[in-house]
Amino acid sequence: MTCNIRNVRLPDDYRAIARVLNSYLSEPTTSERLEGEDAKIPAQGKLSRDEAGRLTGFDRLKLVAEDVKGNVVGYGIAWRAPWTPAGELHHTLVVEPQVRKQGAGGLLYERMAEWAMQIGASHLNYAVKDNDPDALRFAEARGFRKARHTFESVLDLRRKGKAYAAAQAGNGPFERSGIRLDTLSEWPGEESERKLYALYCRTTPDIPGYRESNPEFREWRKWTLELPGAAPEHVLLAIAGEQWIGVANLVYHEETNSFYHEYTGVDKAFRGQGVATTLKLEAIRLARKAGARYLRTNNDAMNEPMLRINRDKLGYVPVPGLYRMEKTVSPLET
């Protein structure tokens, strides 16, 4: 296939990029959503080095592949955020199904790899669907190897299965323990948001496979509380006395009338007491009340406690997940 690789032209390319990404994403995106995400990021990147000489800071390269008629058929982005581990760069590369195996993906990857070499990245991360053997072979042929496996699960809210029966039972034992449930909408203001941020910071390091540092508060707020579909009434809190001990955060997807269970976290001292299960049941009740069709979530393969809750207790059904592929390089070998 003859194709042209070029830098994105924004905002003109947003619609085409959304179309390409939607051939890969579990939940559809839109040009408006992509533009909103870009508006949160400074236009000019700022890369640096730490004391060990590893790449730090943030920047991104965004490319499209065009066919001979000028139609966008592929999209690639190489990026790092300030909280990305030092030396690392993330890759996303998608080619429309009808033109795969014709060279567009390889050309996009070459340009992304060249940029990685230029900026001195030493470690590349690339996500591949676990039911896409062609994409897996593409990554492995370029030196990537499986590092983690993230399972995706879906709960059909229209069916009266395990989750329905459990949710109907209420939170009696939970309430008798002195722990109560609230939502963030009942705690307006920055002070409460910072309290929630502190809970995220305490609990995210314990997630299997999590290697990022915590962003500073303003960045965390942009990518958590200001996501499209996020709302204070969808942030569930478990509170013991004055202490916020657990959180479950849901993000609504209008395009599919569904919720994504973005995060569940419980303080170490309160784990093993049913807090996470109760938060998840409350999330199911919330989503059902809103008339959503389903709940979707992701869990690392090593996060057995959450997988057991979701699948054994609540009846979430496995759907295709993701392999995190990794490649360690030196700047001269990228």
| Helical fraction | 25-40%
Overall, the morphology is globular
Identify the CATH class of the largest domain: Alpha Beta
Q: Please count the helical segments.
A: 10
Low-pLDDT stretches: none
Oligomer: single chain
| Biggest sheet character | 13 strands, mixed
Mean pLDDT: 92
Structural class, please?
A: alpha+beta
If you had to describe this structure to a student in words, what would you say it looks like?
It contains ten helices and 13 strands. It is α+β, with helices and mostly antiparallel strands and 334 residues long. It has two domains: 118 residues, Aminopeptidase; 169 residues, 3-Layer(aba) Sandwich (Aminopeptidase), CATH 3.40.630.30. Strands 1, 2, 3, 4, 5, 6, 7, 8, 9, 10, 11, 12 and 13 form a 13-stranded mixed sheet that branches. Helix 1 crosses helix 2 and helix 5 packs across helix 9. The protein is globular, with a radius of gyration of 21 Å.
Write the layout of secondary structure elements.
Blueprint: E1 4-7, H1 14-21, H2 31-39, E2 46-49, E3 55-66, E4 72-80, E5 88-95, H3 104-119, E6 123-129, H4 133-141, E7 145-156, H5 162-168, H6 172-176, E8 179-183, H7 190-203, H8 217-224, E9 235-240, E10 243-253, E11 258-266, H9 275-289, E12 294-300, H10 304-313, E13 317-328
Parallel strand pairs: 5-6, 11-12
Antiparallel strand pairs: 1-3, 2-3, 3-4, 4-5, 6-13, 7-12, 7-13, 8-9, 9-10, 10-11
